[in-house]
Each structure stands twice: as structure tokens, then as C-alpha cells.
Amino acid sequence: MPPIEVKKDIYWVGAIDWNIRDFHGYSTEKGTTYNAFLVMDEKVTLFDTVKKDFRSDLLHHIRAITDPSKIDYMVINHVEMDHSGSLPEVIDTIRPSKIFCSLKGKEALLEHYHRPDWPLTVVESGSELSLGKRTVKFLETRMLHWPDSMFSLLVEDKVLISSDAFGQHWATSERFDDEVDEHELIAHAKKYFANILLPYSNLIQKLIADVKIMGLEFDVIACDHGLMWRGNIGRIISAYDDWSKQLPEDKALIVFSTMWHSTEKMANAIADGIMQEGAQVRLMNLKHCHRSEVATEALDAKALIFGSATLNNGIMPTMADCLTYLKGLRPKNKIGAAFGSYGWSGESVKIINEELAAMKIEVVAPGVRVKFAPDHDALHPCVELGRKVGKLIRG
Ligand code: FEO
């Protein structure tokens, strides 16, 4: 892909990773991109870099515009290795006079790459850097997604380089939001938010307020993953505002891991009860659904209902995986319940209830257990559990 001009003398020079399918536990079935930006000014400046394996793509794209040795400055908005893994080779090639980063960024760079000779210069929130015709304003965005993260605003151009925020894991030949299907784009952005940024929802609310207070103006959001936003930046900011409030819809999510279909039958009966009360419900069998799809569906669900067969006095491994993952994402404003079949000991419901409590999810029923395979009568408590949850989420 050739370099793309974002605005005059501002170029996308990143890389497209068409084939990545697992991004530290997040299923990236449509790949991703690592976006980097080259600004041609009196001080030629490179913002962000790419994952290690894509360093030649980055340098190839830069060389289509200028000799890398002509780059004066680099800005490192975020040190996670999908953006910094290529730094050792890239810095050796460019040999910039200064590399700008946050204080936490400097610490993380030294702890990752052990190169005290790099010309790291710390910038703070609100500090400005002149590149010649244009000014860069920095905004620290701690924990979005790491403590080192920051935004770089190209003030005169109104381009916000937003690092991980507002990104999507979606590899495309297009680079801007107005070149692709909006519905699919928002779906990817939602999955990205649910799986990466959800634990920092409070900080996103603060960030949106800070951007307004600081009067930052921008009409392009140049995020470091996926498509850049220029057609309707209000759409993604409004979505982030909604998602980070974690206000649920009248929707229940039933997630289950079944051994011989008994727990699956229970899941279907619970769903029947929820539907009888007029609420939405989604069923996800962990044999077929990835944990990151579950996290996406959980984002706007009011009720999370988990079911597992008992296996060796515990829960099914896929359920343990899913609960551990969701717990780390710290979902809020949910109610929950548990169910599961068993043969002789039947610990699964107790274990799931403990996990729900650890997630601070309000457990609204003791849970339903069925020995071996449920018949019509044994499914009745499942329907009743569904009806109870349905009534609660309908308010
Ligand atoms: Fe895209 Fe937190 O790295």
C-alpha cells in the first residue's frame, strides 16, 4: 500500500497486518493495522512506529516520501510492542535528534529496550512542540491503554493522533471511516472498546470532559489501529461516551459450556423464560464463541448468566477461561445468575456464583442445578430463572 496523505504534508506510513488472528487473547478475525504518521515540516517528524515484523513496511512507506535519515524527531505515544517493537532498528536507521514521550513512556522504553543512549525527551500534558509551520500539543492519556499513553494534536491541521483510543482491529485497503461500511466499522470499534478499553471506562469519561475543557479542536482522529475517522468523528466520540457509561440495554446474555448437552438444554430453557418476559437474549456456546465475542456482547447486556457442567469438581475449562477474561475487563451495572448440570458432586453453580461476586455482579438467584439430563419438569426452574431475570431487566 502506498503512503496516504491524511492532510497536506501529513502521511500515513503504517503497516497492514492481514493475518493476525489473536491479539493477546482477543480474536482478530479480520486482522489489524499499525498506524504511523510522518509529518513533513521544518522538523520532519515520525509519530509512532509498528510491530517488529513490519519495520520494513514502515521504512518502505517512509522512503516513498523522504529518506529516513532526514527525519529529525520521533514521537512515541505508546510503548506497547505492537507500536514499539520495531524501534531498535527504526531508530538505528533514522537516528533522530530527539524522541518525545511521556515520563512513563521513557520508563517503559528503558525497561523494554535498555537503550539509555536514545535521545528521549519527556513531555507533559499541555506542553507544545514547534515543528516549524505547525505545533504539536501533547495530552497524557494514562491507562488508555497503558500508563505511558498520550495523544498528539497537530494543532493547525486539527489532526488528533490518538494512539490506541478510537481504534479497531480491522485490516482494510481503505484508510478512512468514510470509505467503508459504517455498520461494520462501528461493530469493530465496539469489539475493540469492549475488549481493550472497558476497564478504563471512568478514564474515558474524564478524557472526553478534558478534551472539551482544554478546547482541543480536531476534525481527523488518526488512531493507531484500523481506520482513521474524518467523515463523522462525532459518531465515534458519542459511541465512546455511551460505551464508557456502561448503561445496559434490556438484554440478557447466556454463556454456557456444556459437556453432553444437558447444560445447553438448560440454557435454552432460561432463554425461553427471558423471551416470555419480552426481553432480548443472546446465547453463546463457548465451544463455538470466542471469549472476545462474549466480551463484546456483554458490553451492553444487563444480565450475564453463566452455565457450566461440573467437570472434576470444577467448571469446564472454557468457562474458566471466559470468566477470568471477563473479570479482568471489570464490567459494571450487571446482574447475574448461574446454572449447570452435574453427575455427582455439582460444584459448578457455586464456583460461578463466587466468580460473579468477585466481579461485583449482583447475583439475583441461587442458581439452578440439574442432575444428569433434564426432563421437562427439571427444565421448569430454568424457565422460572429466565422469567425472573427477564422481569428484572425489563424493570
Ligand atoms: Fe495498540 Fe496498547 O497497543
CATH topology of the largest domain: Metallo-beta-lactamase, Chain A
User: Rough shape?
Assistant: elongated
Domain count, please report it: 2
Biggest sheet features:
7 strands, mixed
Give the names of the bound compounds.
Answer: MU-OXO-diiron
Question: Helix/strand/pairing class, anyone?
Answer: alpha/beta
CATH superfamily of the largest domain: Ribonuclease Z/Hydroxyacylglutathione hydrolase-like
The count of DSSP E runs of length 2 or more, i.e. the number of strands, is: 24
What is Rg?
A: 24 Å
Overview of this structure, please?
The protein is of the alpha/beta class. The protein folds into 2 domains: 4-244, Metallo-beta-lactamase, Chain A; 252-390, Flavodoxin domain (Rossmann fold). The chain has 12 helices and 24 strands. The protein has helices at residues 55-63, 81-84, 87-94, 103-113, 182-197, 201-213, 233-245, 262-276, 291-298, 317-329, 348-358, 376-394; strands at residues 4-7, 10-12, 15-17, 22-23, 26-27, 32-34, 37-39, 45-47, 73-75, 98-101, 120-122, 128-130, 135-140, 150-154, 159-163, 220-223, 249-257, 280-285, 301-308, 310-311, 314-315, 335-342, 362-363, 368-371. The strands form 6 sheets. Strands 1-2-7-8-9-10-11 form a 7-stranded mixed sheet. Strands 17, 18, 19, 22, 23 and 24 form a 6-stranded parallel sheet that branches. Strands 12-13-14-15-16 form a 5-stranded mixed sheet, with no helix packed on it. Strand 20 (310-311) and strand 21 (314-315) form a beta hairpin. Helix 5 (182-197) packs parallel to helix 7, helix 5 packs across helix 9 and helix 6 (201-213) crosses helix 7 (233-245). It starts with a strand and ends with a helix. MU-OXO-diiron (FEO) binds at residues 78, 80, 82-83, 145-146, 164, 224-225.
